[in-house]
Amino acid sequence: xxxxxxxxxxxxxxxxxxxxxxxxxxxxxxxxxxxxxxxxxxxxxxxxxxxxxxxxxxxxxxxxxxxxxxxxxxxxxxxxxxxxxxxxxxxxxxxxxxxxxxxxxxxxxxxxxxxxxxxxxxxxxxxxxxxxxxxxxxxxxxxxxxxxxxxxxxxxxxxxxxxxxxxxxxxxxxxxxxxxxxxxxxxxxxxxxxxxxxxxxxxxxxxxxxxxxxxxxxxxxxxxxxxxxxxxxxxxxxxxxxxxxxxxxxxxxxxxxxxxxxxxxxxxxxxxxxxxxxxxxxxxxxxxxxxxxxxxx
Length: 297
Description:
mainly alpha
C-alpha cells in the first residue's frame, strides 16, 4: 500500500465532510488583536449561534457523511476490506452528542476572538425570514446531496445551466468569489487530512514511521485535486440549495456574505468546525491504524 494512499483517500472524504460547514464557514481565519470578550458574553454568543443557525441539525448529517465515506475508505485502508468493527468505531467517534460538544467548545474559543457587535449583526440577518429560509435550504440540500445519484444530478444540472450561460451561474460564481469559499475549505480539508495522518502515524499504521515533513508533503500533494473537487461540489451544491431563491434574494445574500458581519460570522464558524474536524480526523487516523495493527497479528 502506497504511503500516500491513506492521506489521498481521506482528503476526498474530508472534501465531503468539511463542506458540511457550508457557505457560512467559507471564509479564511483572520488574525485578530487579543481582545478576549467576557466569559458570559462569549457563552451567550455561542448559545445564540447554535440556536439561530440551527447548528444541531448539521450533526446527524456530518455523522452520516462520515459513516458513508468511511465505508468507501475501507478497500484502500485495509487489505482485506473493512468490517463491522471499523464502522462501529467511526460511529462512536461521530456520535451526535459528542460532535455537538466538540463544536460548541470550538465555537466558544473562536467567538472570543471576534467583535461581538459584528456577530450580533450577522445573527440579526439570519433571524430575518430570508436568513431562516437560507438555513433551511442549505440543510435540505446537504441531506439531498448525500445520495450519490442526487449529487451527480446536481453537478449535471449545474453544468447544463453553465452551458446555457444562465444568469444564476454568474451569481453563484460571484458568491463563491466574494465569500472566498474555496481556499479555506480546501485548507480545512487538508488540516483534517494532516490530523488523520498524525493519528495514523502515532498508531503505527504506516509501514515505516513518517516525519512531520513527510506528512505535510503528502497533504500538499493532494491540494490541486482537492481544490478541483471542492469547486465542482460547491458549484453544484449552491446551485441546488439556492434554486428556490429569486435573483434579488440571492443578491442580498451575496452582499451579506461579503460584509464585515458576514465575514466575522464565517470566521467564527470556520474556527469552530476546524477544531471539530481536526480532532475527529486525528481519532479516525488512530483508529484506522489500530485496525490495521490488529489485522497484522
